Every structure is written in structure tokens, then in C-alpha cells.
Amino acid sequence: MYAVCLRYARSQADAADILQEGFLKVYSKLDQFQFQGSFEGWIRRIMVNTALRTYQKQRFDHEYSGYEQLPDSPVDPDAISSLSEAELLRLIGRLPEGYRVVFNLVAIEGYSHAEVAESLGIQESTSRSQLTKARRWLCEQIDLINKVNA
Are 99 and 74 in contact (CB under 8 A)? Predict the structure, then answer.
């Protein structure tokens, strides 16, 4: 669960705080688990929701990262496969906060843009835009890594 929290947090300390708060919620709501679906999935959902509430307080509406003007250059599929899981997670962790939260929710957790919009209090179009910018930034970073390693 720490890895889930770490994907949404700005730092390891923030992830630890989210994890602690999440487990407090799990403990306090344990009687509400209805044994439908996996227990791990139920806990994971609580952790994600805890992380989202943490960052709703710190809103990223006015975030400007400078990545809005990145080119739409495609990345060679082999370039992605050459990255380790740790390298890819490190790149995701370096995304600007708004991009990272939306990317995690849509690309990793499988939420729809409608669910993301409702969870974060944003428009669906904002969710789509943040995801597009996140993907573009990741592609650019992967391309840079591959040029360095070539």
C-alpha cells in the first residue's frame, strides 16, 4: 500500500502520512467491509481516496509547469520496454502534481475521466488535458533517456 501512496505523494514523508491516515480509516471502517471483492482491493481504494483528499486540499488548478508546449513526437515502443519498472515509476513520480494524480488515476488505477473529474472536483476536459500533458511529458523524458543511453 505504501507504493500506492508514494505514487500520489510529493515525498516519502507525505506518502507515509497518507499511508498512516489510510490505515486509520481502514481500521475505523473495518466493520463496513462486506466481503464482496478482495480485501486488498478495498484497502487500496481507501488509500487512493485518502491520497486524493489530501491533494484536494492543496489543489493543482493553477499549476503551471512549462510542459504545455512540448512537441507531440511519438516514442519508439522499444524505448519504453528498455526502461525498468523502477525507472518508469521514478519518471511518473517526477510529473508535476496535477499531471501525476490524473495519470495515476486513469492510466494505473483504471478510473474513467468522469470518475476523476468527480473525485478531484474538476471538469472531464481538464482530466483529459492533464493526462495528455502527462503522457507527452513522459514521452519526452523517455526520448531523452534513450538519446543519452544511445
Answer: no
Contact 66, 42 (CB under 8 A): no
pLDDT digit string, tens, across residues 100-115: 999 999 988 889 999 9
Could you tell me where in the chain the CATH 1.10.10.10 domains are found? 63-150
Q: Render 75-86 in DSSP notation, one character per residue.
A: --HHHHHTS-HH
Name the architecture of domain 63-150.
Orthogonal Bundle (1.10)
Give the predicted TM-score (pTM) of the model: 0.61
- The one-letter amino acid code at 128 reads R
CA dist 19 and 38 (Å) reads 19
Angle of helix 124-149 relative to helix 113-120, nearest 10 degrees, comes to: 110
